[in-house]
Write a structure and sequence with these properties.
mainly alpha
């Protein structure tokens, strides 16, 4: 039988266990949540708040202000607030609270800083850079096309096996954080590039060795994170892109371009593999900024 009057510490422990067991979040993510939530409990104790229903919106606002006064930057404050939103969401689901009041507190501006996002023209230049007359160029082109087409994390990209790709149906089966699997569609250009790589490039790279990995480096070994990071940086330089590009930049560009084009936020959430839509919402400011620029450029009174 569940405890009708759990302590704040017990509620946090229940939430963390739920995120680990039910949601399947990674250990590092759970550790980050734990640190932020326990900092919140310390604040509540200092305010002589011992019950969760006493931690109202005013208390949450005071906590965010307290973080700022203690020198925490917008990004850190936003991270704490995202953790609180997840905690209060759990409490609502568990029947401990009637609503998630943490959602009523806005994230600090520029709180969750995104890496550089490429515009559509920059992505096109980048994807056109690899030399597709060579096996490695075919591999690199396929990797760049796919990470952008499906919005993959670099770990998901290099972890793909041949069986994870369905070229006939046009999707890729991805194993993401918490060992959770999702199906992500990919466009015709990525499919064509993958098909050419599998036919002309990969057999030359693998040679006579057996390998289940989709993208291989030397001796049939899988491409490493560092290896992909290096080739991405080199191709960005060749394409004349001055921005500091990382593998995550491609994922952010994928999400931002979909939202700019009018894609539904929840659909993007599913494709990215985000458990909480609040995580996906950090991309919307990029799309909103672009819409403002378009309005100013083309509206008669912009």
């Amino acid at each position: 039988m569940s405890n009708p009057n759990p302590t704040l510490e017990q509620l946090v422990d229940q939430c963390l266990n739920y995120l680990l067991v039910e949601k399947g979040l990674a250990a590092k993510t759970i550790e980050a949540y734990a640190g932020d939530l326990r900092a919140f409990l310390d604040f509540l104790k200092a305010q002589h708040i011992e019950r969760i229903d006493e931690a109202d919106t005013a208390a949450l606002l005071k906590y965010v202000i307290d973080l700022r006064q203690n020198g925490r930057g917008p990004r850190t404050r936003a991270r704490h607030l995202v953790a609180l939103r997840g905690f209060y969401s759990f409490l609502v689901q568990a029947g401990r609270l009637p609503k998630n009041i943490a959602k009523m507190v806005d994230l600090p501006k520029s709180g969750l800083k995104l890496p550089e996002v490429l515009d559509v023209q920059e992505v096109a230049k980048l994807l056109a850079t690899p030399d597709r007359t060579k096996p490695k160029g075919l591999r690199d082109a396929a990797m760049l096309e796919l990470i952008y087409a499906a919005g993959l994390r670099v770990s998901e990209l290099i972890g793909l096996t041949i069986s994870a790709v369905n070229l006939e149906a046009g999707f890729v089966r991805v194993t993401g954080k918490g060992n959770k699997e999702r199906i992500v569609p990919m466009g015709r250009k990525a499919m064509d590039c993958l098909q050419e790589y599998l036919k002309e490039g990969r057999p030359v790279l693998v040679k006579e060795l057996a390998s289940r990995h989709l993208f291989v480096a030397r001796a049939g070994q899988p491409m490493t994170r560092q290896g992909f990071w290096k080739l991405l940086r080199n191709y960005a330089l060749q394409a004349g892109i001055a921005k500091r590009i990382t593998p995550h930049s491609m994922r952010h560009s994928f999400a931002s371009h979909l939202l700019e084009g009018g894609a539904d936020l929840r659909a993007v959430q599913v494709m990215l593999g985000h458990v909480d839509i609040a995580t996906t919402q950090i991309y919307t400011h990029v799309a909103q900024k672009r819409l403002i620029e378009i309005h100013r450029q083309f509206h008669p009174r912009g």
